[in-house]
Design brief:
Layout: E1 2-11, E2 14-24, E3 29-33, H1 40-47, E4 55-60, E5 63-64, H2 69-75, E6 76-79, H3 91-101, H4 106-119, H5 135-147, E7 153-157, H6 165-180, E8 184-189, H7 192-198, E9 201-206, E10 209-215, H8 216-223, E11 228-233, H9 237-245, E12 250-256, E13 259-264, H10 273-280, E14 285-290, H11 295-303, H12 306-309
Parallel strand pairs: 3-8, 3-9, 6-7, 7-8
Antiparallel strand pairs: 1-2, 1-4, 4-5, 9-10, 11-13, 11-14, 12-13
Helix pairs in contact: 3-4, 4-5, 6-7, 8-11
């Protein structure tokens, strides 16, 4: 669906992006992570054919940005990080205006606009003026506008930026729903933990260089050298701790207010023998789980010192 090859953009001697290679399939939800000025918007604008690269190539559904930009624009829905709304237009009028620009006519246009309001959960605001919407509602209106022509590819630049916690949850659920509909989505953000919940692939970019491009699961594996377990038993916590600490898979153990935090030795991922041994020794297990690495921790670990290398 989306492919870039050595995509590069320079301004004078400065690289905005450098040799970006990206390949996404239908239904992928790609989290594009990086600080402000890292090159996320530049990459997305090139894919949307709104900006020409200095070198390299990009394809959307097999169409080159050089030879078939019109075809790409029919396939892509681009939502910038900031966009204006017309103050004197009602929400439904705003959508109908843009639907007309997409040459959607008659009853089809009206039906399409109503459908988009339902998808973004904004039907109750259809007759409100656009300038009376909250920040979160405005973002959802912008997404509805982006979806009007039923694009196969969505490029969403910082859609979670500036939203309150409730609005972020609503937008995140909406993005997940769009992914389930088979849309291929690139969503850029610096709100790191939230992307881990909705994306199946992630790219980390800094100063125009993409240092990581992998599935979320693979990113977590890259930063986790050792498995950490959290274990609770019903009684005799100290004795259980001594038992686990003597196991040949365990490197260290701490008692965190009754929760045993067990760090396994490097390279060990199969720890099924540990709960089996506890049960065999008569301990009742209340909790046994592997500690998760969130995307924010992964970002910090994988980009540590990157700026100094570029």
């Amino acid at each position: 669906m989306i492919k870039t090859v050595d995509l590069t953009k320079k301004y004078g001697e400065m690289f905005a992006i450098q040799n970006i290679d990206l390949e996404l399939e239908e239904g992928d939800l790609f989290g594009f992570i990086g600080p402000n000025g890292a090159g996320k918007t530049t990459t997305m604008r090139i894919i949307a054919t709104l900006l020409n690269p200095t070198s390299g190539e990009a394809y959307v559904c097999g169409n080159s940005i050089y030879t078939k930009p019109k075809e790409i624009r029919r396939l892509v829905g681009y939502m910038p990080d900031f966009f204006g709304v017309y103050d004197d237009m009602k929400v439904i009028e705003y959508l109908e205006f843009f639907a007309a620009a997409y040459r959607i006519r008659g009853q089809t246009r009206r039906d399409r606009c109503e459908e988009m309001l339902e998808i973004v959960d904004l039907a109750f605001k259809r007759d409100a003026f656009a300038n009376t919407l909250s920040r979160g509602q405005t973002q959802r209106l912008g997404l509805a506008r982006t979806l009007l022509h039923d694009p196969q590819v969505l490029l969403l630049d910082e859609p979670l930026s500036g939203l309150d916690p409730r609005a972020r949850i609503e937008m995140r659920n909406l993005l997940r729903k769009l992914g389930q509909m088979g849309k291929t989505i690139i969503v850029s953000s610096h709100i790191l933990p939230e992307l881990a919940d909705i994306c199946n692939k992630v790219g980390i970019i800094d100063r125009g260089v993409m240092s990581v491009n992998a599935t979320v699961a693979d990113v977590m594996k890259q930063v986790r050298e050792q498995v950490v377990l959290h274990i609770q038993v019903a009684d005799n916590v100290e004795r259980a701790g001594n038992l686990l600490e003597s196991h040949d898979q365990v490197e260290s153990l701490e008692d965190d207010h009754g929760t045993l935090v067990v760090t396994l030795k490097k390279g060990i991922s199969d720890y099924t023998d540990l709960p089996t041994q506890l049960v065999a020794e008569g301990y009742r297990i209340r909790m046994f789980r592997e500690e998760e690495v969130n995307l924010e921790a992964a970002f910090m670990a994988l980009t540590k010192g990157l700026g100094a290398k570029i």
